[in-house]
Amino acid sequence: MSSKNDILSAIRSHTGKRYNMPDLTLDAIVYEDKIAQFSDALQAAGGKAVLLQPGEDVNDIIRQHFPDAARIASNLPDITCATFNPDDLADPRELNNTDLAIVEGHFGVAENGAVWITRQVKHKALYFISNSLVMLIDREAIVNNMHEAYKRTEGMTYDFGAFISGPSKTADIEQALVFGAHGPVGVLVILK
What we know:
Elements: H1 3-13, H2 34-44, E1 48-51, H3 58-65, E2 72-73, E3 100-104, E4 107-109, E5 114-118, H4 126-129, E6 132-137, E7 142-143, H5 146-153, E8 161-164, E9 169-171, E10 177-179, E11 186-191
Parallel strand pairs: 1-11, 2-3, 3-6, 4-7, 6-11
Antiparallel strand pairs: 4-5, 5-8, 9-10
């Protein structure tokens, strides 16, 4: 018998009355205007949200926000401003020097401006190596809080998933804030 089993057996033998887990009722925060809250939270995190208006082309919006981007990666069929498909690359190191990556998110979280993404590209490094990241989500796919977000992920099948909220940032002990240390310097979320 392993040490783990010995310990668990000892605990079980000394456990008296057992109780069922209580039903959890959670009064989590709910927002009247989830889109406005999502936009404000994302801005507070250093990112930006844009609500796509009827008749607007997502490619034009991307070009307006990133006019100097030369190397643009996306495997999404509607993204015509992309200069290459990242899935065509054999080695993820070839993604180095990518100015902009455009990906699809599943949903957003109003509470903190986060977007839930799963791997929809060959190399997940794309989400973190590009200088800037554009995430597209459906405006109706914004949940109020992280409790709702985790419930929404329960039925999904994926090999990689992450919540991304704003650009990458870190601060050292001297409180010097650095953007882009572990990922994109800029994040734009386009709400379709």
